[in-house]
Amino acid sequence: MTDLYGTQRAMRNMRKAAIQRGVVAILDVGTSKIACLVLRFDSDSFDGGDGVGALAGQSAFRVIGAATTRSRGVRFGEIDAMAETERAIRTAVQAAQKMAQTRVDHVIACFSGGSPRSYGLVGKVDVEGDTVSEQDVARVLAASDIPEYGNGRDVLHAQPVNFALDHRSGLADPRGQIGHSLACDMHMLTVDTSTIQNLLYAIKRCDLEVAGLASGAYVAGISALVEDEQELGAACVDMGGGATDVSIFIKKHMVHADSVRMGGDHVTSDIAMGLQIPMATAERIKTFYGGVVATGMDDREMIEVGGDSGDWEKDRRTVSRAELIGIIRPRVEEILEGVRSCLDAAGFEHLPSQQIVLTGGASQIPGLDTLAPKILGQQVRIGRPLRVQGLPQAATGAAFASAVGLCLFAANPQDEWWDFEMPTERMPARSLKRAMRWFKDNW
Q1: 171 φ, ψ to 5°?
Q2: How far apart are CA 226 and CA 355, in angstroms?
Q3: Residue 440 confidence (pLDDT) above 70
């Protein structure tokens, strides 16, 4: 835990330095595409992220470079072939740098998959003085009862979602308030260590420094959910190419995250196998003619499959749109059933508001907003990311929800466990840092 704490603190300091220098890159490593945005920050507005809450340390920024390339070597949101992924990351970063006309050294990355697991932690301490200090907040976070999450997993996010001071609960920032007993509810998200290490290694091989890591589920929720939805309770379903991320927000904090190992690429694969055509042709047909709700017209609408196999008869084949929908719909239903079971496991039905927002590239299939409420049983809308200054029109679609969310994550750092100085009792017994802290406190 302390190793991870140290690396996260190092990333935080690196991000602060990069933002103060003025330029940082955003990298969304997905199964179907790798997107890179270059952000320029107004360093005067950056105040170091002092505060608890989603808008702590806000920074003004604009996008000055954007590029996207077809992802290679990534399956289910996890790196499968290192050299291929490295080449794709280099391509995207170099194109974005060329557009921005500046060199970038630091990137903040996000990824899907990694088998995320959520934990709810509770901590309680007595306040040392009359008012709650930053040290008290650090102590209550460190006093949280960390579960045994097993070897081979790392903590990616650890965020305080609620503070209680004496009998008053629901506090966003207890610092400076008068009270005796401080309690905290915290959400902790763990992912497979190998997923993180492979991503860090791939980025390092591209001669870039990682200044931050985030879960795709979290950043998609930040960008696709409007403020009221984040406050009252909503789920964001980010339907990517190889994985579908599910995140639940309430009181402007993420309280649960999960992942379904299926996405839009599986639909494309079904079309390719069902019609006996190459994947590239299947993707084109899905994009132009896909859908999940059949009408009477679809039997008569014929689609030319095309191809360049050299067999004239095979290349001139046509299929009806109703046949295509018959291939697409079962897979989409299967993905939505997986999302439904994730929401049920999280107790989503107990939230005051139960809005579900679908985003991501695979949410663009026509008719999905009609099919999804039948399976998920809630109000469903298709979400687009927030508008960001300087973002090209081509990057404003639902497929870029994670990339835009990562921009907001970089500019408005959400206070996490490692934003606060860790109390000495949580450090290893022989730590030099612990000895130095003891001297500082006692002499």
Answers
A1: -85, 135
A2: 11
A3: no
Query: Buried (b) or exposed (e) across 47-75, using 16+ Cβ within 10 A?
Result: eebebbebebbbbebebbbbbbbebbbbb
Helices 368-376 and 321-345 sit at what angle, rounded to 10 degrees? 40
Q: Taking residues 341-370, report their average pLDDT.
A: 91
| Rounded CA separation 33/258 (Å) | 21
End-to-end CA distance of the chain: 29
Q: For the chain, give the number of residues.
A: 443
Q: How far is CA 143 from CA 170, 176, 204, 375, 411, in A?
A: 19, 20, 34, 41, 29
pLDDT at 4: 61
Q: Tell me which residue has tokens 């994670």.
A: 402
Q: Which pLDDT score is estimated for 429? A: 40
Comparing CA positions, the residue from 69, 253, 90, 241 lying closest to residue 158 is: 253
Using DSSP bridges, classify how beta strands 302-304 and 318-320 pair: parallel, antiparallel or unpaired: antiparallel
Are the beta carbons of 368 and 383 closer than 8 angstroms? no
What is the C-alpha separation between 165 and 420, in angstroms, rounded? 19
Three-state DSSP at 69 gives: strand
Distance CA 394, CA 211 (A): 26
With 0.85 as the threshold, say if the pTM is over it.
yes
Residue 85: what pLDDT? Answer: 93
DSSP state of 203: H
In the predicted structure, residue 108 carries a pLDDT above the cut 70: yes
| pLDDT above 60 (res 155) | yes
Tell me the fold of 117-191.
Dna Ligase; domain 1 (3.30.1490)
Question: What stretches of 119-207 show up as alpha helix (H) in DSSP?
Answer: 134-142, 193-205
